[in-house]
Write a structure and sequence with these properties.
single chain, alpha/beta, D-Maltodextrin-Binding Protein, domain 2
Length: about 300
């Protein structure tokens, strides 16, 4: 659940902690999965391909803005190539539409401007569909994700009673800009100690900070937290249940002719089972949807 605002990447305390003790790579913790391994192959849908906007159809290329530092959704594999279930899903969408996929890797906060400026046709980077963002772009919704906290195994942490704790987040995520600050404010409003928020450039750094005991807990999107737990050799556990479940969306230009085409392509993958296979491959099927929709935030 990423926020669109640019937030300073690290607090001073977190920056000091990174020196010599945290892996700065964006590769999944302990993982070497590749988008090319066991990839789901689907057939081109001629009717869907024929309905593409002329610009995209003539180019034959789907330019996709992505920040590849959020495993298992999108990250870079051991060879530095885009990987993750979002990457697999995007490649499958490209196949349905008969397009070659070009991942335009950059920073998260530059994706929406790149779409609105015509550089990218769409984004695929764990965007939470919100009313605020829908003022800038339209979203084709493809997944439901909540917020999930994690803590060291054996340590009880209650996300609703975390006053005085140190909590790691990835900078610019919804957890950084909204969720944890709101919990901290509730603490101080009640006369209790604030939550100390440690902001990291990548989710891997936030996860590692928790593994080595520099923070008490971490907060991230549910598929990200569950994947991180699976990659840390039983050092972490969930803290409470997932909450604030909301749709992920692929952003496209506002009122674009491409949105309904992308919606049909996604629905085709859902209907033929390819979508389910991709989610199952990465162990994130719990958030799968049965119907491709547009701008779910506006629809409530």
């Amino acid at each position: 659940m990423r926020a669109k605002f640019v937030i300073p990447a690290l607090t001073a305390a977190a920056a000091l902690m990174l020196t010599g003790c945290v892996d700065n790579s964006a590769t999944a913790p302990g993982g070497s999965e590749s988008a090319s391994a066991d990839a789901v192959v689907v057939k081109k849908d001629d009717a869907i391909a024929a309905s593409l906007p002329a610009k995209i159809k003539e180019a034959g290329v789907l330019n996709v803005g992505m920040a590849n530092n959020y495993p298992p959704n999108e990250f870079k594999d051991a060879n530095g190539k885009p990987a993750g279930w979002s990457v697999d899903l995007t490649n499958a969408l490209g196949q349905v539409m008969g397009l070659k996929v070009n991942f335009d890797i950059g920073t998260f906060d530059n994706i929406l401007p790149a779409i609105n400026g015509g550089k990218d046709d769409m984004g695929m980077s764990s965007f939470t569909d919100t009313l605020e963002r829908e003022k800038q772009v339209d979203f084709v919704n493809y997944y439901l994700a909540g917020i999930q906290w994690a803590a060291p195994v054996g340590k009880t942490v209650d996300p609703d009673n975390a006053c005085g704790l140190k909590v790691a987040v990835q900078a610019t995520t919804y957890e950084d800009t909204h969720e944890v600050p709101a919990k901290s404010k509730a603490c101080t409003d009640a006369g209790k100690a604030a939550i100390t928020i440690f902001k990291f450039d990548t989710q891997d750094q936030a996860t590692n900070a928790l593994v080595i005991g520099q923070v008490d807990a971490m907060s991230a999107d549910s598929p990200v937290t569950l994947y991180a737990i699976s990659k840390t050799d039983k050092k972490l556990q969930t803290a409470g249940d997932a909450f604030e479940v909301a749709p992920y969306g692929m952003p496209v230009a506002k009122d674009s002719e491409f949105a309904p085409v992308l919606q049909k392509a996604l629905q085709a993958l859902i209907d033929d089972g390819s979508y389910g296979k991709i989610l199952s491959k990465w162990g994130v099927e719990s958030g799968g949807v049965k119907t491709a929709t547009i701008n779910m935030a506006a629809k409530g």
